[in-house]
From TrEMBL:
It holds the Pfam family Sulfate_transp. One of its GO terms (cellular component) is membrane. Its main location: membrane. PANTHER family: SULFATE TRANSPORTER. Residues 25-402 form the SLC26A/SulP transporter domain. Keywords: Membrane, Transmembrane, Transmembrane helix. It comes from the Bacteria. The chain crosses the membrane at residues 29-48, 54-71, 126-146, 184-202, 214-235, 270-289, 309-331, 352-381, 401-433. It comes from Mucilaginibacter hurinus. This is SulP family inorganic anion transporter. The keyword rRNA-binding does not apply. It is a multi-pass membrane protein. GO terms for biological process: transmembrane transport. It is found in: Membrane.
Length: 535
């Protein structure tokens, strides 16, 4: 599907006039602040859970914003360190022996993704069922609400950004919510409640809505936290954002780490780790891309192969600088959409803000309570899992609703990739079931003497999956009928099905059936796979 003229990604690599128009900047700049505020604790939390330096998480967010944001053809997708890779990264760092050796795997993974993009592997994104993508979005919304609730009311020892049901702190998504009640900090509750009120009321006041509500939330939340200091409802240190403080240029450049390429060709486990990261990161990025296109108000279609090239470039640079592997991330991307972003300027600016926060204002950033950031994510989660979405999917019918619900349950109760895989399996079952039923069209007519003529029109594509259905149908045709099997509209009929048809024609006389074949060839060549993705 080609992009329309109004889509900036149709204008080449970077159209300055469109990206920096006053109309777009008015929406992109406030949205970039929201994404920055959401991304910062997630970058830090994922780095912590991965067993990597905190700086690596922020660095990955910077590269994801600036580099991937600039190259990607998606206008709303935001890249950064991904929660889905934490277990892989943690295990890889331990097994490879050093962080520097692990960085080699990150660079190699990026190179593999570049190859994926060049050979147009992004075409697989065309086969993600819509019901599964919708279910993934709703599940992410539920996960955000449940995972952020403990941060909103007090404290959660699990890392910020975790999406898995079983948590590293030996809790699970449900038990962590109940455990939060035993750790309630009323200062955090007040800040979260005030933040939610602002997020709901402030945008409706037109005269002041030019100031982004999330920015106001952060300012007021920080002020309230300062006011509560020294009282019985004061926040604890772990209830604030904690970003590394860089005191000098020398200290800043000392945080970068270089990959150790000395063992690249002597250790197969480095290449295995790289392949694992490349495959998982590519699938998660393509899923995120499809999901973002679903909720894009302008309904643009992002080029999947270009996205793989952008992600690969980002991972090469991130690995060379000492960062973590990155992917397109649905939480940040959905926050970007809900904040009203229109172009990739929002993602790029969020990367610049992460860099500025690290270099210029780390002390101010460390004054932000996690409870006010949790409120922002709670609102994002609510918008992703609204009741209207469930009603909409129900009205689409059982073949759409069941995979939708199964995907939600699987993603919430397991994790993102496994949950989506289960959803695709269930959706595939319904697709096959529908395909089996629609391999032919059946019509019966009668002549003046009451003799039946059965017209069987075969579908455009008749595969081996239709073999059983067609065999059963032919076997049960009434005796003494005239049968016309019409393949005029068929571009392809599987050899097994052709054999069944010819065998039936050969033996039909024993039942008094006269069979006429119309437009059916003796042999069909497999249809060539068209290039579905021109990007």
């Amino acid at each position: 599907m080609a992009l329309q003229d109004h889509s900036p990604s149709a204008d080449g690599f970077f159209n300055v006039k469109k990206y920096f128009s006053a109309k777009n900047l008015k929406k992109d700049l406030p949205a970039s602040i929201v994404v920055f505020l959401v991304a910062l604790p997630l970058c830090l939390g994922i780095a912590l859970a991965s067993g990597a330096p905190l700086f690596a998480g922020v660095l990955t967010g910077i590269v994801g914003g600036i580099v991937v944001g600039a190259i990607s053809g998606s206008q709303l997708s935001v890249a950064g360190p991904a929660a889905g890779l934490t277990a892989i990264v943690f295990a890889a760092i331990a097994s490879l022996g050093s962080y520097e050796t692990f960085l080699v795997a990150v660079v190699l993974a990026g190179c593999m993704q570049l190859i994926f993009g060049l050979v147009r592997a992004g075409i697989i994104a065309n086969y993600f069922p819509s019901s599964v993508i919708e279910g993934m979005l709703a599940a992410i919304g539920i996960i955000l609400i449940m995972k952020q609730f403990p941060h909103a009311v007090g404290y959660d020892a699990d890392f910020e950004g975790d999406e898995s049901f079983i948590q590293a702190d030996h809790q699970n998504t449900f038990s962590a919510v109940f455990a939060a009640f035993s750790k309630i900090n009323y200062g955090a509750v007040i800040i979260a409640a005030v933040s939610l009120l602002i997020l709901n009321i402030w945008p409706k006041i037109k005269k002041v809505a030019i100031v982004p509500a999330p920015l106001l939330v952060v300012v007021i939340g920080s002020i309230l936290a300062a006011v509560f200091t020294g009282t019985g409802i004061a926040l604890q240190r772990e209830q604030y954002v904690v970003i590394p403080v860089v005191n000098s240029a020398t200290e800043f450049f000392g945080l970068f780490k270089a990959p150790d390429f000395s063992q690249m060709f002597s250790r197969g486990d480095i290449w295995l780790t790289a392949a694992t990261i490349a495959i998982v990161a590519s699938i998660e990025s393509l899923l995120s891309l499809e999901a973002v296109d679903k909720i894009d108000p302008i309904k643009r279609v992002s080029p999947t192969n270009r996205e793989l090239i952008a992600q690969g470039t980002g991972n090469v640079i991130s690995g060379l600088l000492g960062g973590l592997p990155l992917t397109a991330v649905i939480v940040r991307s959905s926050a970007n959409v809900n904040a009203g972003a229109r172009t990739k300027v929002s993602a790029i600016t969020h990367g610049l803000l992460l860099l500025l926060a690290l270099l210029a204002i780390p002390t101010l950033i460390n004054m932000i309570p996690l409870s006010c950031l949790a409120a922002i994510l709670l609102m994002t989660g609510y918008k992703l899992t609204r009741i209207a979405l469930f009603k909409h999917m129900w009205h689409k019918g059982i073949p759409q609703f069941v995979p939708f619900v199964v995907t939600i349950l699987a993603v919430v109760l397991i994790d993102l990739l496994k949950g989506v895989a289960i959803g695709i399996f269930v959706a595939g079952f319904f697709i096959l079931y529908t395909n089996l039923r629609n391999s032919y069209f059946y019509k019966i007519t009668h002549d003046g003497e009451g003799k039946k003529t059965i017209h069987i029109n075969l579908a455009e594509e008749v595969s081996f999956l239709n073999k059983a259905a067609i065999q059963l149908m032919l076997t049960n045709l009434p005796k003494g009928s005239d049968v016309i099997i019409d393949g005029s509209n068929s571009r392809y009929i599987d050899p097994d099905v052709l054999e069944i048809i010819h065998n039936y024609r050969h033996n039909a006389f024993t039942k008094g059936v006269i069979v006429q074949l119309k437009g059916i060839k003796d042999r069909y060549d497999m249809p060539k796979l068209k290039e579905l993705d021109k990007a």
